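Fold this sequence, please.
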Amino acid sequence: MLAVENVIGILGLRDKAASSPYALISRIEDGLPVNAVERVARLLAPHDTQFKYRLIPKATYDRRKTSHRLSSDEGTRLARVARVWSLALDVWQGDEDAREFLFRPHAMLDDRRPIDLVIQSEIGAELVFDVLGSLKYGSAA
């Protein structure tokens, strides 16, 4: 699977305590910092100031800014997006190409945008991982 260090970097968790997969799970369960949403949104959609509300609904985001922590479910969704972004960067070797893949409908995904499937569910993310894996390892995609 993907190096946990990549996901930690994407989420902006730079401390050594989060450097193992199990530590990352604990961090997610304890509540990722709200600024991780801003960071991921800037990486994936730097010109869309509203994209963060696709990751966390606006009213919820505003509440989380007060507590400074995401719920476990919100953190899990954010980490899922970070994992897909990490693999897309690995496959496409550049931010713009990775973004184009994620935000463009794809025939192997029933003409849906990969990012929408990733945000929606773990199963959707697995479908996107399959397409990215096919691209990375040379199968038709």
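Residues 29 and 73 are 8 Å apart (CA to CA). The mean pLDDT is 92.
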